[in-house]
Specification:
Layout (H helix, E strand, L loop, with lengths): L17 H12 L16 H6 L2 H8 L4 H11 L4 E4 L5 E5 L13 H11 L4 E2 L3 E2 L4 H11 L10 E2 L6 E5 L2 H16 L1 H25 L3 H7 L4 E6 L2 E5 L1 H9 L4 E4 L2 E4 H5 L2 E7 L6 E7 L12
Parallel strand pairs: 7-12
Antiparallel strand pairs: 1-2, 2-6, 3-4, 5-6, 7-8, 9-10, 11-12
Helix pairs in contact: 5-8, 6-8
């Protein structure tokens, strides 16, 4: 199962989603028009307008204030909606646990077809969808905009029951939101997008899991770290620079005790114990074993 594929229950919201999910309820009760308080008229900076689509430029040119723009987006792009956090940030939201009516299972068919494609059950316990969590929607969203130069301005705070991303530019959220909804409405293309995105995410997670508890994983996550390492071959100390050289292939081997150990062999060794030095920041004591070696087993020299 792909990373972030927790069972997705669309019948109820999770406790940690109440703050933002509440906005979806408020919008339904107030017919969207009263979802956000009215603030002073404003327009996006000219340099932002130049990077956004014609649709956004027309709205700004017509003198729409922020509330009007958000209301218009929310009417035209259901079940997605935008929230103004009154802090200079705007969220694009898809509250999966609160979808109802014609949007109750919005986009879910593509995730169900992915489940069938990889041999997973579509449902868990007859009530939860196996795929289609907010985390998986994030992978799909990222894939949809991977070539867009503005994609790096988007941040994510997704949960099992909802997809949430945010940015400081309302125009950017409007642009990406409307484009992504259009992609979701194109059945076959969206199914293909979901399949590609989730397969790539699953492969990344598989590779990450393989190296997470290895020296390669440690050096990747601690590029400035210094490590005193007891290996099956003997002791060695790696500086941050030596660690980078091992990772990028510039260093082909290291000396451990009386043995010369090839870089790849060292990087694949599994970490069995790690402790950070209490008195030296970025300094670690590590013990390793060779892949497949039982704990406490010694290698023959």
């Amino acid at each position: 199962m792909a990373a972030g594929t927790e069972g997705t229950e669309r019948d109820f919201g999770l406790p940690d989603a109440i703050r933002r999910m509440g906005k979806a309820l408020e919008m339904r009760l107030s017919d969207i028009g009263n979802a956000c308080r009215k603030i002073e008229d404003t327009v996006e900076p000219l340099h932002t307008r130049r990077t956004m689509g014609i649709h956004t430029q027309q709205m700004e040119g017509a003198g729409m204030d922020i509330k009007q723009r958000i209301d218009r987006f929310n009417r035209e792009n259901r079940p997605f909606y935008i929230v103004d956090h009154d802090s200079g940030e705007y969220s694009l939201c898809l509250a999966l646990s609160f979808l109802e009516g014609e949007y109750e299972n919005f986009g879910q068919e593509a995730f169900n077809r992915y489940a069938v494609e990889i041999g997973d059950p579509v449902m868990k316990n007859g009530r939860w969808f196996t795929h289609g969590s907010g985390h998986e929607w994030k992978y799909v969203f990222e894939k949809a905009f991977e070539d867009d130069p503005n994609s790096g301005k988007i941040k994510y705070d997704c949960e099992t029951g909802g997809f949430f991303c945010y940015a400081e530019s309302l125009a950017l959220i409007e642009e990406f939101g409307s484009r992504f909804r259009a992609a979701c409405m194109d059945g076959e293309k969206f199914t293909e997008l979901v399949s590609t995105a989730l397969k790539e995410a699953a492969e990344k997670e598989r590779l990450a899991a393989e190296i997470r508890d290895t020296l390669r994983g440690f050096l990747t996550e601690n590029p400035e770290g210094i490590a005193d390492i007891m290996t099956p071959y003997g002791f060695l100390q790696l500086t941050a620079e030596q660690g980078r050289q091992l990772l990028n292939g510039d260093r082909k081997s290291v000396r451990a005790g009386d043995s010369e150990v090839e870089a790849e062999e060292l990087l694949r060794q599994k970490i069995t114990h790690i402790q950070q030095d209490l008195f030296q920041d970025g300094h670690f004591q590590i013990r390793t074993e060779a892949p497949g070696q039982a704990a406490g087993q010694s290698l023959s020299m």
